Structures are given as C-alpha cells and as structure tokens.
Amino acid sequence: MELRFYIVRRILVLIPTLLGLTLLMFLLEAMIPPALLEIPYFNPKSGISRTIQLHNAAILLGLNLPLPLRYFKYVWLILHGDLGVMNLAGYPGSVTLAIEQAFPNTIQLALFATILALAIAIPLGTFIGARPNSVADQVGRVFSLSGFAMPAFWLAVMLQIGLGKNVITGNPFGVFPISGSVPDVPIAPSFYTNGITSPTHIPIFDALLHADWSYAWGSFMHVVLPTLTLTYGILAGILRFIRAGMVDSTYQEYVRTARAKGVPERDVIKRHIRRNALIPTVTVMGLLFASLLGGAVLVETVFNYPGLGLLSVQAAINFQIFAVIGSTLVFGVILMVANLIVDIVYALIDPRIRY
Amino acid sequence: MADVNVTGKMKPAVTAAKKRHPMLEDFSATFKAFTRNKLAVVGFSITMVYFALTILDYVYPAYLGVSNIDQVTSWVFPLTANPPTGPFIIPSTAAATAPHWWFWFGTSLSRQPILPIMLAALKTDITFTLEVVLLGLLIGITVGAVAGYLGGVVDETLMRITDIFFSVPSLILAIAFVYVLGYSLNNLLAALVILWWPTYARLTRGVTLTVKSMKFIEASRASGASKIRIIFRHVIPNVLSPSFVQLSLDLGTVVLILAGLRFINLPIISPLIPELGTMINDGNSVLVGGYWWAVTVPGVFLLIFTVAVNLMGDGLRDVFDPKLRGL
Predict the structure, then answer these.
(1) What are the pLDDT digits (tens) for A162-184?
(2) How far apart are CA B179 and CA A321, in angstroms?
(3) What residues of chain A lie within 8 A of the CB of B175, using their CB?
(4) pTM score
(5) What is the set of domains in chain A, with CATH numbers?
(6) Measured in whole angstroms, how far is the alpha carbon of residue A217 from the centre of its chain?
(7) What is the ipTM of this complex?
C-alpha cells in the first residue's frame, strides 16, 4: 500500500475516536446541572436582565433540547471554536482564547522534553544495549526504573531547591528562575504583544526570529527546570525500549552476517543493531507522550508555567466548568495527533507495517 | 512439579495427602522463579513492609488528629530511648524542629511530628490505591473475559469504549471526572475505577482470545456447560496473570495520582486529613524558611514505595511474560 493511502486510512480511523472523545466530554458536561452551566454566561454589567441572559445562554448551549440534539449542538459549538466562557483572574473570558494562549507553552515544553529525552536516551541506550548485564546496564536499569517511579511534582520541588534562583540563599547552582515562562521585562517586546509578528507563538522561537537574544535566553532559562523534570519521566521508558531492542537484534542473522563480512564493530552497532532497535521504540513514544502530558499538568503547576496544565488545574480549583472540559478535550486531541504522527513515522521507517 | 522426577516418569506411589492442588503447584513454581530476581524480592519485601505499616496503623493509630509535640499519643515514642516527659524546651523562634532523636523526621510548622503523620498519610494513600486497583481489576477482568469470549458486537463495542479512555492522559481525565462528580475521596475513587478498568479489560480480553480456542474450553463446551459457567470457572482463572502484573505496576501510578492531585491543592480531601501529597505541599510552602525536612522526608517515603512497587512489578512480568524478559 502506498504511504499516502495508509495515512488517509489512519486519519479516517481517527474520526470515531474523536467522536467518542467529544461524546465523553459531552456526557461529563451533561452531568452538571443546567443552571450551573448558564451562570458563567451571566454578565451583570451588560444591562440586559439576568433572566434573559440566562435564557440566551440556555439557547446557545442547547440546554432546552433533548440530550442527543444537545450533543449535536455541543459538537457544532466545538467546530465553531466555541468552548464556552470562564471567569478567572489572568485569563481571558473565552476558554478558546485561554487555550490558544496556553497551548504554545505546553507544546514548547513537550517538544523540548521529548527532544532532550531522545538526545540522551539514544546514545545512552546504544551504549548499555551493546553491553547487556554489565555494571553500566545495571545502573541504567535502576536509573530508568526510578524515572518511572519518581513523583514528578516532588522532583520538580527538589530541582527548585537545588537549582532554583532565590530559593536557598547562597546556593551557587541556583541560577534558574522557578516561576513563569518568560522573563520579567518592564515592557514586553513588541512581537509578544503584537500578534501579527509572533509567527510561532512559542516565546523562545519568536524571540530568536526577532533576534531578541536576551529575551530568548531569559525564556530558555525559564523552561530548563520544567523540561528537566519532564525529561526524567519519559527518558526511562525510551531507554528501556532501546536497550531491549538492542539486546533483541544483537543475535539476529543479519548482524552475524555483517560481522562475518568484516564490518567494523562500530558500524555493526550503529547501522545494523541500533537501527532495528529504534523501530519498537517509536511505537512506545505515543504512550510516553501521554505520560508526558499528564506530568505536564503537575510540573506546570509547580513552576507556575502558563500552559494548558496550569489552565486546567486553575479551572478545576476555581470551578470553571467549561475550561476544565475544554482543556481536557484539547489534551485528548494533542495525544491523538501525537499518536497519528507516531504511526506515520512508524510506517515511514518500517514499510512492513503498511500492509 | 514435585510429582515428576528427573526422568519425567510419575513417581509410582503418591499418597493422597501429599498430592497438592495443581494451582498451588503452579504457584510455588512461579514463586521460585520470582525469588531468583533479587531486586524484585527487595521490591516485594518493601511493599509488604508498607502494607504492614498500613495495617498496624489501622490497629494502633500513630496519629490521632490533634497531636503536636506537646501532646503526643503515638506509638513512635516507645521506640525511642527517651520518651519525652514534661514540657519541652524548644527555642521559641523555631516553629519547626529539625530531625531529632525524639522526632526522627523533625516536626512540621504546626509543631506536629512528621513520622506519625506520615504513617497516617500512608494509610490514606495505600487504602485508596488498593481500593482503586482491586475494584478496577474486578470490573476489568469480568468485562474483558466476557467480551473476549463472546466476541462480535460486544467485543467491538468494548474496544471502542476503551479506546476513548486511552485517548486522554489518565491524570487529566481524572481531574475532569472528579470535578463533575464533586470533590470527595469517594468520588475520586469512582473516577479512577472508571478510568482504570479499561486497562485490565484490554489485557484480559487479549489473553481470553488465545485461551478460548484451547482444548479444555472446547471440552467444557462439549459437555454442555453454560457460557456463564465457562467464563467464570474456566476462562477467568486462566487469564489473570497479565492483569496481576499490571496491577502491581498500577499501585505506583494510582498513589502518585492521588498524591499529585492533593499536591496541586485539588480539594479532594480536607487538608487536615494526613496524605502524602498534602504533606509535600505543606513542606513546599515553608521551604524558603529552611525547613527542608518537611518536603524531603514525605517525598522520599513516597518514592521508596513507588520504586519498590515497580521493582516488584518488573519481577512479576519477568515471571509471567518471558517474552518481555530483560526489558
């Protein structure tokens, strides 16, 4: 099968899952008493009477409709980019806008953590995978296991103590800011306030594109500690799978052939063993990404990092129903897209999977 | 395999008393394989110590809810050499006491010794975790075995439902569920059970598909056993092992979810009820005062449990699923 047909089929399979996800979110929302859904829409300053405002909200959300029709109304609103309203200090009134602001920050964190984890895990996994049952292997095993078991929020606090700025007085390693995602500057750079010149919406990339080096450096220092915390969690999984893949493919016929025909040992490990070990690793990336997003919720809260996780936690604590449901939905969609990418990458590197 | 000698022949005379149940035989073989992995045994032992501490705390609570260092009624003090009598002399400037012979892990800012609170917190956490995984296991195994055995539409529907649950990270979905159900420990329990049964259902269904084509199922079907009887008497006892492995690993995940949600101050239980996440959060808020023990000690206590559970789960997986050995 050609790759593009495979991709199309894979996207079509996504549709039922997406519908199921919206259905689940809708059922959660439907369990809330309708009166509580109307109240966030009430604006005392608008001059329109409360009764009429609440009635309008009920019409907008389809609260007067039977449940199945209300579901269609819900999907219709999502398709039009309306995830409801919220009233929370520091956030815009529309959930869609709030998510729009938080989304790039979370993507930045997830991207950095994934890249860093891969950058560490692939060489390290190659190293210990080529020496099974050595001391390095045992150390790696304990290291990866502690990564699985580590409470992310506690690790975040520990990193704040050890490396955070102004946590412990006189700590020479305390150089990283422990709160926020961008440096405090008296006037925010124009590209940050002016949406037109903010092409990626990710602070570091935007600053780099505009050659604002100090702002980029400041933003980078802000993401170091959250990234390290998240990396530790997923590094474990990747390392484990690369190691297992390496050990598995060491005894394959093609490796023996390569050795027999005199390929240098370095090339055998790099080109024959590791390449095949990376294939199963790709498949677990989707699962690991899920745990990464879950960890992001806790880590963003500890570091007060304005991403989707912080939004969903703030909303949950301050009883903003639409923001809770909306951010959960977006997390689900991110994970689905991540899984889609993983599957496509898998199909790209391993043609057998397309059939 | 005690009844089979080296040559593979049955021993000629086996008395009825000596013959053990085949399932017991199976268990002892599994146990032997498990004990070969030393790290797994360490993990298992530590987990058992934690469970024992939980049970001990139910029998003889270390923390009665009001104790601060001036009025302690805990069973920790008999273990120390000098049980404190009379008023303490603590510098009035220090609100919290650093680790001390009387207070092994120091006291919190409200002058409560950390160790007894931590043991009470462990009770909350472990009880909750066991409830979640066992209820999830019960539902998941039943649903998975029924769906796998019946196949067809039932199976297809189940798979689609579990797909939906796996499409959102469980911690985030847990927040949404417990929000909608209302903040309380029992509602979080319900939310996590709803989120956890699909894992076991999937695993069980997978094994059921292979088991159901085996001869002994065919034989019982031929002998006229009802579907319900086949599922509960013959299928389920043979599809438990992957779920058990998953369960032992999930102990760590669930306890981290409860502690994590409490750490971020989700009002699931009152902050006055001891819980490890709450303790870490409390410690975090006074960290800048230099009270490092208030956040470090509960965190390490939690970390030891999750590491132990993971070691145990790894060992179990090695035993039950040789394909994944060394992974």
Answers:
(1) 888 877 777 788 888 888 887 77
(2) 8
(3) 297, 312-313, 316, 324, 328
(4) 0.86
(5) 3-79 (no CATH), 95-349 (1.10.3720.10)
(6) 22
(7) 0.89
